[in-house]
Amino acid sequence: MNDMAEQDVDVEGLWTRYGGLVLRRCRQLLRDEEEALDVTQDVFVQLLRRRSRLEVRFPSSLLWKMATNLCLNRLRDRRAGPEAVEDDTLVRLARLEDPSPQAEARFTLRRLFARQKDSTRVIAVLHFVDGLTLEQTAREVGLSVSGVRKRLRGLRETLLQMEAS
After folding, report:
1. Do 99 and 150 lie in a common domain?
2. Which domain holds residue 164?
3. pLDDT band for position 39 (50/70/90)?
4. For residue 48, what is the domain's CATH number?
5. Under a CB-based contact definition with an 8 Å cutoff, are residues 136 and 91 in contact?
6. Is 124 in the same domain as 54?
7. Residues 6 or more apart from 146 whose CB is under 8 A from it?
8. Residues near 15 by beta carbon (within 8 Å), at least 6 away in sequence
9. Which residue, 4, 28, 66, 142, has fewest beta-carbon neighbours within 10 Å?
10. pLDDT given for residue 99 in this prediction
């Protein structure tokens, strides 16, 4: 299917087939049931609003990406992003179970990602939290593999500078 006309997009069918996938994704990123339900609904509201301009050849990928972006926006808005990057220090920080170190990890991650483009947060989440390969991450965000590597390298360098100061 190429560009689909507004009446061709079966949003109800997509909700039935992929609603659970979107909700699981939102739960994974937000770790809050009510917010996950809200963002899941927002994904499909956005789909309804933009359906005449969307190409829906791979609906699961589109919905996954929409859910990820909306969740990251929500996390940014509440200033508590759980994003992680490849550096062992950040992976350890992002996966801490004890709440007090988590607060420090959130602070570090907020400072780190405040210096980056929003799309770099998406790259970090897709690659390090979701476990996508560099190639898969590049496809999802529309960059080359070398572009993804460059962003991740920049993230590590920024972290090293932060730790040095």
Report:
1. yes
2. 81-165
3. very high
4. 1.10.1740.10
5. no
6. no
7. none
8. 44
9. 142
10. 52
Question: Taking the model in full, what pTM does it have?
Answer: 0.52
When pLDDT is averaged across residues 123-144 and rounded to a whole number, the result is 87
Can you give the pLDDT at residue 100?
59
Q: Is 5 helix (H, G, I), strand (E, B) or coil?
A: coil
Residue 4 and residue 56 in contact, taking contact as beta carbons nearer than 8 Å = yes
- CATH label of the domain that carries residue 143: 1.10.10.10
Measure the CA–CA gap between 124 and 101, rounded to whole angstroms.
Answer: 20
Domain match, 71 and 90 both? no
Structural domain ending residue among the three candidates 50, 78, 106: 78
The rounded mean pLDDT for the chain is 78
Write b or e for each residue in 4-14: b if 16 or more Cβ atoms lie within 10 A of its Cβ, otherwise e. Answer: beeeebeeeeb
Residue 123 phi/psi, 5° resolution? Answer: -60, -45
Residues 92 and 150 grouped into a single domain: yes
For residue 103, the Cα-to-chain-centroid distance in whole angstroms is 20
Helix boundaries (H) for the chain: 11-30, 33-50, 59-77, 88-94, 99-114, 118-124, 134-141, 145-164
